[in-house]
Amino acid sequence: MKKILNILAVIVVACFLFKFTTAFDPMTRAYETSYNAIKNLFFPDKKEWTEWEKSNIENFFKSRQTIQHEIDLLNKGADFSVSRHSLALNNALRYALLVREDVLFKANSELPQQYETYKKSLQISLEGYLESDNNKIMLGDQLFDQWIDWFNDNRHEIKIPQN
């Protein structure tokens, strides 16, 4: 058995070297499938999502939907209400705090750090509205815009499975 594993390990290394030394050769496509099959046998994809992780990332979507609903109301001409807006910020923050960093990392390696900006924007904005502090409200809005810019620029690199 050990001999077979050694042979397979040599094959994996050979395929790996072959893949990168002939990366621009059209013939490598035929070998790429074999390489990937062997690679996945020894190094399984760590990106597979468990049901718990899928459930946890739902809080990411719930947080965004909560804020988006509030923004949509305002864009449709609803009167601004500090209490309604504060409630939306509070609910979005509660959902955001439930999302685990390792789950975010699985979706995108930069997402945990960027998501901290999002959570901080919600927290500071909420404090600003509750304390009637315009400086905090403006800072929260700036952080939120920063988050939105990053998210829009990187949304195609964020890999979250469909349920």
Describe this structure in words.
- The protein is 77% helix and 0% strand.
- It contains seven helices and no strands.
- α3 (51-75) packs antiparallel against α4, α4 (82-98) packs antiparallel against α6 (111-131) and α6 runs antiparallel to α7.
- The protein starts with a helix and ends in a 9-residue tail after the last helix.
- Mean pLDDT is 84; it is low at 20-26.
Structure classification: mainly alpha
Q: Return Rg in Å.
A: 23 Å
Average pLDDT, rounded to a whole number, is: 84
Main beta-sheet strand count, sense and barrel state: none
- Taking the alpha carbons of the first and last residues, their distance comes to 40 Å
Give the SSE order as H and E letters. HHHHHHH
Q: Helicity, in percent?
A: over 70%
Number of helical regions: 7
The stretches of 5 or more residues where confidence is low (pLDDT under 50) are 20-26
Globally, the shape reads elongated
Question: Short description, anyone?
Answer:
The protein has 163 residues and is mostly helical. Helices cover 77% and strands 0% of the residues. The longest helix is centred in the middle third of the chain and has 25 residues, at 51-75.
Primary descriptors:
163 residues, mainly alpha, 77% helix
Helices and strands, with pairings:
Layout: H1 2-21, H2 28-42, H3 51-75, H4 82-98, H5 101-107, H6 111-131, H7 134-154
Helix pairs in contact: 1-2, 3-4, 4-6, 6-7
